[in-house]
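Model the whole thing, not chain by chain.
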Amino acid sequence: MSDGKPVGIVLVSHSAEVAASVAELAKGLAGGAEAVPVAAAGGREGGGLGTSAELISAAAASADRGGGVAVLTDLGSAVLTVKALLAEGDELPEGTRLVDAPFLEGAVAAVVTAATGAGLDAVEAAATEAYGYRKV
Amino acid sequence: MLDADFFRRWMTVAAASVDREADRLTALDAAIGDADHGSNLQRGFRAVTAALEKEATDTPGAVLTLAGRQLISTVGGAAGPLYGTLLRRSGKALGDAAEVGTPQLAEALRAGVDGVMALGGAAPGDKTMLDALIPAVDALADGFAAARAAAEAGAVATVPLQARKGRASYLGERSIGHQDPGATSSALLIAALEEAASGAEGSR
């Protein structure tokens, strides 16, 4: 458990619409999850498909309530940009972690778990476990 | 010895090369990627030259660290964190030295390449920028011209390779027969070293 501080969730996609919609979907499926800060960082600054380090840093700062920040990404440059920012050490809030998870299913699992008051380790585990959710 | 002026010139020449070759890089990327490598790098290196004009950089390390940070912030594709990590790690490896020799530059670039490998998880032969960078760093002891030749040969040698990293890897065998855009831009970056040393800034 966290010490009462919610885990923040950051969703990084190549598309602004995908990031925002997945955030909305995850919060909706979590029954609102008002207490969980969920921030979307989609596309490039000023529009267009891609990844923006500035948008990621801003989203992480806005989702940070002191309980750690779980970052979920889609593909390629989204993953690499978050890793590069984490390697820098001072561009993302303390306790920010890149979570290895499927983007949509992982986001839902992360937000639902964070809404229970769980800490970052539990949120990360739930998001990663979403890889095992078989549909057929 | 190479001072901060040399490193600023290197970045300026690299930016000019990327400007000149942007269409070619994008065309190579259109064949096996998402057709944005040239325009992405153009945006990134323009931001690098703008930042170097605006912010004072007293050491070679500071120039590369600033350039790397700009690339991570502005490129918008995988090349951003990859080239950004290359330059930033190299810059950090150079530390506060006011001037560095070619052996120190080679050592620093080696650290940068290690950072790229750790970040992207690619190995030599995966049809990536590493296939130009690693031979270039190996050849740097023999001078900038040798490094340039090695990088260009490395880029051409990616043609028969099958991509194992990035979007091109989804193409499987269909990625064979195309020159890798990242290895091609890496060869431009290394070629810019030679041009910066000759002082022929942006005149090619």
